[in-house]
């Protein structure tokens, strides 16, 4: 064995033999966990938790309801927000998400938008960026070769999987676009 591995082995054995379990005086699992949690040395804290896992049947267990009732509640507050309120909000949000699972998403946005083009710019990849009269800016996803000009009336429609298509009034061609602003 090398000198480095021998010194590591000696260190591990010395720590393991000199370690006295923190949870020996603990009566319940939760008390043992609290005692291990208070340990400052990370290696000894890990060993303490490992000892709890190995000897969990020796410790008197209490139900989670009793442990929660006996545990001190943190009084962390910032403004009107408390840790208890945040936990309730998270639970409420999770329950709402579970209730909505499988339902069609509620979408209040319209399926299409009609406006007038006020500005058209073309980048070096020949993709067009159109500014509409309502202030929205849309960029062409690929270069289709279909030119949009200032002053044209356009319609932006929703496509599948979150895509959008821009069509010029009087033309059957569509450009796939992405909203920039």
SSE order and pairing:
Elements: H1 3-18, H2 29-37, H3 42-54, H4 64-70, E1 77-78, E2 81-82, H5 83-100, E3 112-122, E4 128-132, E5 137-140, E6 153-158, E7 164-168, E8 174-179
Antiparallel strand pairs: 1-2, 3-4, 3-6, 4-5, 5-8, 6-7, 7-8
Description of the molecule:
The protein has helices at residues 3-18, 29-37, 42-54, 64-70, 83-100, and strands spanning 77-78, 81-82, 112-122, 128-132, 137-140, 153-158, 164-168, 174-179. A hairpin with a 5-residue loop joins strand 3 and strand 4. It is elongated. The chain folds into two domains: 7-75, no CATH class; 112-179. Residues 13-24 have low confidence and may be disordered. The longest helix has 18 residues, at 83-100. Strands 3-4-5-8-7-6 form a six-stranded antiparallel beta barrel. It has 181 residues and is of the alpha+beta class. 35% of the residues lie in helices and 23% in strands. The chain is built from five helices and eight strands; from the N terminus they run H-H-H-H-E-E-H-E-E-E-E-E-E. Helix 2 (29-37) runs antiparallel to helix 3.
